[in-house]
Design goal:
12 helices; 2 domains
């Protein structure tokens, strides 16, 4: 049974001394710290020759008492001497009166940290894109390594399960575009041009763009959370250990399914938005559905459809890459999963909008206006 810590005051010729005995561990200290604080008079030395076991807490108590009283420590064994040395080297006072950092300096520091983080993330995405391309060509060389069941499952999750929410969103967006456009065009007596606005804006921009934002929030976040949880559970490391490539088993099925489904979802979204716009035109503007369809055929060039279908797989690649990349960056704890999931959504939406602007400039430059 462990012996409780005890002390004995000794009156010596050159001053008073305190002799400690027993085990100076956290479980056995008891009231020893309070008894040391109650010791009166000057103390010249602390005797540890009768001490058995000592831990870091006991060493800190002895060091603090000796430092406050200006006493020397004697009789310490090898273990006690080592702990006292470590405690003494790390016992540094805190600067409680530290001056506050100026607001401008804090803002500049935050901007600098955000810039560095953005640069590292961009570099990591470029590296991840290279790894994705390599994995894609390896699957082309060895088609048997493609996990078809996983791809089909992701096609259902990304595409089929999203039809209802994307259809509802697109229908309402079509109504909003038609309503807002008709209000503005009514000032010039050109309500009929609402059909032009709905048709061209939907097929060319909003259909695929809003679909990409919805898929990023719905599927991109799921990719990051799923892979991030696997990283926390060390399942990804276990896959590497048994010779399974995480890029081929986890990343490629998700990216392939997103790239395949985005053109289909974008076209579906555009059609439903057209239906919503046509519904509003029929109810509020008195434009019959037949007239609405005929007008669409006259004013919407086929290039608008091709522009949407060309952008869609690129947006799908961005969404799949962002979700998988952020999921593979999870380290440490469950909170990191939430942070990386949020980062995946924000990153995907930002990159989609940036690439959409690049596409807009490019197609205008080549004459697809």
């Amino acid at each position: 049974m462990s012996q409780q810590a005890d002390l004995e005051e000794r009156n010596e010729g050159d001053g008073n001394a305190v002799a400690l005995s027993g085990n100076l561990s956290l479980a056995c200290l008891g009231t020893l710290p309070d008894r040391l604080d109650s010791v009166e008079g000057p103390i010249t030395r602390v005797d540890l020759s009768a001490v058995g076991h000592i831990d870091t807490i006991g060493a800190w108590v002895v060091h603090r008492f000796a430092q406050e009283r200006g006493a020397r420590i004697e009789g310490a064994g090898e273990e006690a001497a080592r702990l006292l040395d470590v405690v003494g080297r790390n016992d540094m006072p805190c600067d409680r009166a530290a001056r506050p950092v100026p607001a401008l300096q804090r803002v500049l520091a935050q901007i600098g940290e955000a810039t560095i983080t953005t640069g590292h993330t961009l570099l990591g995405l470029i590296n991840f894109l290279g790894a994705t391309v390599i994995s894609f060509f390896q699957l082309l060389r060895h088609p048997s390594r493609l996990r078809l069941n996983a791809v089909v499952q992701r096609l259902e999750v990304v595409g089929v399960a999203a039809l209802a929410i994307i259809g509802l969103m697109s229908f309402l967006i079509g109504i909003v575009i038609a309503q807002q456009g008709s209000v503005q065009l009514e000032q010039f007596g050109m309500e009929v041009l609402t059909v032009n606005l709905v048709g061209r804006l939907t097929f060319r921009e909003l259909g695929v763009l809003m679909t990409a934002i919805m898929v990023a929030g719905r599927s991109g976040s799921a990719f990051a959370a799923q892979i991030g949880t696997m990283m926390l559970n060390e399942e990804v490391d276990a896959m590497r250990t048994i010779g399974v490539s995480p890029m081929e088993a986890l990343v490629m099925p998700r990216i392939i399914s997103t790239v395949i489904m985005m053109p289909l979802l974008g076209f579906y979204s555009s059609l439903v938005a057209i239906i919503g716009g046509g519904f509003f035109c029929a109810v509020a503007l008195g434009i019959p559905p037949v007239t609405f369809v005929q007008r669409l055929r006259e004013v919407v060039p086929i290039t608008d459809l091709w522009i949407g279908l060309i952008k869609a797989p690129v947006f799908g690649l961005i969404i799949g890459m962002s979700g998988c990349f952020q999921g593979l960056q999870v380290r440490g704890n469950a909170e990191e999963v939430g942070l990386r999931t949020t980062a995946a959504v924000v990153q995907a939406i930002f990159l989609v909008i940036v690439i959409d602007a690049v596409f807009a400039v490019f197609f205008t430059w080549v004459g697809w206006k």
